[in-house]
Amino acid sequence: MNTPSLSRAFALLLWRDLLLAYRRRTEMINPLLFFVLVTTLFPLGIGADPALLRQVAPGIIWVAALLAAMLSLDSVFRSDFEDGSLEQFLISAQPLSILVLAKVVAHWLITGLPLLIVAPLLGLLLDLPAASISTLLVTLALGTPVLSMIGAIGVALTVGLHRGGVILSLLVLPLYIPVLIFAANAVESAGAGLPIVAHLSLLTALLVLSTSLSPLATAAALKISLS
Amino acid sequence: MLRFFHQLGSPKHFYRIAGRWIPWLAAACAALMLIGLYQGMVVAPPDYQQGDSYRIMFIHVPSAWMSLFIYIVMAVAGAIGLIWHMKLAEVIAISSAPIGASFTFLALVTGSIWGKPMWGAWWVWDARLTSELILLFLYLGVMALYSAVEDKRTAARATAILAIVGVVNIPIIHYSVEWWNTLHQGPTVTKFGAPSIDLRMLIPLLVMAVAFKLFYATVVLMRARVEVLQRERNAQWVRELVDIS
Amino acid sequence: MTLQEFFHMGGYAVYVWSSYAIALVVLVANVVAPILQRRKLFVQLARRQRRERRES
């Protein structure tokens, strides 16, 4: 058997995962619905005063995005674990971290990117000004990949467990805190007309850091979980 | 020297050597703690601003230091266990988690009690307290993962990865929380510990800090011994040990 | 300083002594937990070894 090149393996795996997701596209809608639903709960809980909503909207939308991203994490490795393809990745000639990266990128395209499409709608619901909405989109674009990257480590550690879901949230949510702080603050500052370059560069730094380190940790975790 | 470390690698010798060390460590810890408490509670003068309430510092600050220190020890021991397949390092890492969590809890509770007379509230979203709370969650995650994985060797290795990921994230979390804190809160919150501290207060603080370190060393060895017994339950030396008792 | 003053802690007695009490509880719990665990393990192992001897 001739082994494909690294970039080809990456592209093949990415394409395979996207195709699989396309065939089960109804499942893709669930995290989105969750995202919208959680956000609509807040005005019902705290009252619909537009000034109050505008003030808490960045935090609400980001917390909801965090939870939606976390809930969708389970599907990164689940089906591959159940049908045994994960073990094939482990013994394949390609470095596992690159394959993991492909899977996480695919997962983000499936579950993270749709959040960006709905987010402006939620911004309108919570009466965010236009400047905040565009910032919200930028922070989501920079932040949700970080969530997928960090989350992949947690999923890899809990993939073999029967009740991994609760533990996964305990492992992953504390690590999401920096993203939440920088991103929600950026949206807030944009609404107040303050500069947000610092926030966005910090988010970019987190993105670079997590993209370079987390596949390694995820690969190591998978090797342990499947041993 | 080399032989000494080689012996430590064997569970049987570790069990024996640790058993010999524990009483000495415990005695030193108790002595230092008594000195520190006497110096801190009796000799040190009341603070000109906080009165006698600052004496909570002598347990709050050492436990806050220990909470971070133990997490780092846990991650380093976990990494050693992963890289060199050293079982003893795995045992030390996994035995550290509950101790570290209890110190974190202690730092949180005493910080909150100290905060009540100082800030007028049991909980203030102060940067250090918030970071400490997140650290507690990190510890709880490590412990939850360890107890969830059935095979304890796999569990120890999985937790080691988690601890390493956590240790990389701690500075980022700490920085982000501090940043968040300065944005959201005015300068009304007084920080713990003045920049210049009276020597009569500093000495008991340092003595207590060393005492807490010794306490950790004592307790982690005790836990590690039990963990070693559990892992080696089928070995001949454990059987003999059980027969004697 | 009298003993009464010492326990009074300049009016902060409740805060200071409750902190120290909690610290004591946490430290003692840390010492007791491994001792109990060890005892339980020994009882468990002793029972298993007796059973094995009877069977053989």
Keywords:
heterotrimer; A: 227 residues; mainly alpha; 9 helices; 84% helix; elongated; B: 245 residues; 8 helices; 0% strand
How would you characterize the overall build of this protein?
The complex is a heterotrimer of chains A (227), B (245) and C (56). The two termini of chain A are 25 Å apart. Chain A has helices spanning 6-23, 25-46, 50-72, 78-82, 85-91, 96-125, 130-158, 164-191, 197-225. Chain A is an all-alpha fold and 227 residues long. The longest helix of chain A has 30 residues, at 96-125. Chain A has nine helices and no strands. Chain A has one domain. Chain B is an all-alpha fold and 245 residues long. The model of chain B is unreliable at 186-191 (pLDDT under 50). Chain B contains eight helices and no strands. With 56 residues, chain C is mainly alpha-helical. Chain C has one domain. Chain C has two helices and no strands. The model of chain C has no long low-confidence stretch (mean pLDDT 88). Chains in contact: A-B, B-C. Chains B and C meet through helix 3, helix 4, helix 7 and helix 8 of B and helix 2 of C.
Number of helices of chain A: 9
Rg over CA atoms of chain C: 22 Å
Low-pLDDT regions of chain C? none
* Structure classification of chain A: mainly alpha
Q: What is the strand content of chain C?
A: under 5%
Radius of gyration of chain A, rounded? 18 Å
The secondary-structure element order of chain A is: HHHHHHHHH
Q: How much helicity do the residues of chain C have?
A: over 70%
Number of domains of chain A: 1
Span between N and C termini of chain A? 25 Å
Number of strands of chain A: 0
As for the number of domains of chain C, it is: 1
Q: What pair of chains forms the biggest interface?
A: B-C, 38 and 28 residues
Computed structural class of chain C: mainly alpha
Q: Mean pLDDT of chain C, as a whole number?
A: 88
